[in-house]
Fold this protein.
Amino acid sequence: MKKFFLKLLLFSLPFVVLVLAMDLWLRNVDSLYKEKFQGIQRAKDTQILILGNSHANYGVDPGSFSLPAYNLANPNQSLYFDKRLVLKLLPSLPKLKYVLISIDYHSLYFSSQGIRDVWSYYANGIAYKNRNYYLENISPFLFGYTPGVSISMLKKQLSKNIKDKNQKLIQFEVQEGVNLTDSIVNGYLGFEGVDEKSFNPVYYSERIAGFNQKIKNSTERLEIIQDLTEFLSVLKSRNIIPVFFSTPVYVEFYKYTDKHTVLQNKKDINAICRKLQLQYFDYSDGSLFNKTDFYDCDHLNKQGARKFSCIVNEKLNISQNCHQN
């Protein structure tokens, strides 16, 4: 029996060492979530805060606003996390005047970010619906990022370290289309160029089908609207102006959206706007934007982000001093 346990220990030792080593690395690994959360705490002069998921993350350039702005949006970030991030940060943002809240095709139908709930939690400590992250705190490798994702992250990091001998590269996970030699500025890191392969009817149909499935399966709409309305009331009570906006999508892609869902979204947001006397800047149909303004069919590139941000800046009636270049 003693020999059996000894053999078992020797057999499992490499795995235990791997888990401990990966856990140590993951506890210290950087991420876009960490960069943004740490960055906004240093940006105490921020007067405009931008919230939302990937459409706002890549589609709103804070450098194009006349007042100090910061982009706190993240890929797949829900209104649930938008709200709790801001409430946590309000004491450190004494000059905050505007909170720009992205409303997308599916924003009112999801609150969980999937596996990204945990990634966000590691960066800012915000738990999804008071979930217990006991196992995730014990081992980020096994229960947080999960082994498959962790190994993929490590491979990319090692590849970057090899290339980094010649040029400084971003040391955290970013999506394809982001220049690895770029820098995050006021929370913004945009797409460059145009991904031609995403501009075709098959891609449009599949992309919308994914959104429609999430919308169809959702039972959260009324809960999300209530939670959002309470958030807006808190902002207004502090003399902070909430503003809704919808980023453009490519005009041909927009034709694939379900018109019933689009109408319901507009009814819901317009009802909130009437109740709380808010503004809604809806540019979702993409009619003012060209293909060259987009990285893919529903995300603006840097050029499009500057163009859209200038429009929003002017709609806020701050001034005409918009920085497009």
Observations:
- The radius of gyration is 21 Å.
- Residues 157 and 260 are 44 Å apart (CA to CA).
- The beta strands are 48-51, 69-71, 98-102, 241-246, 279-282, 294-296, 299-300.
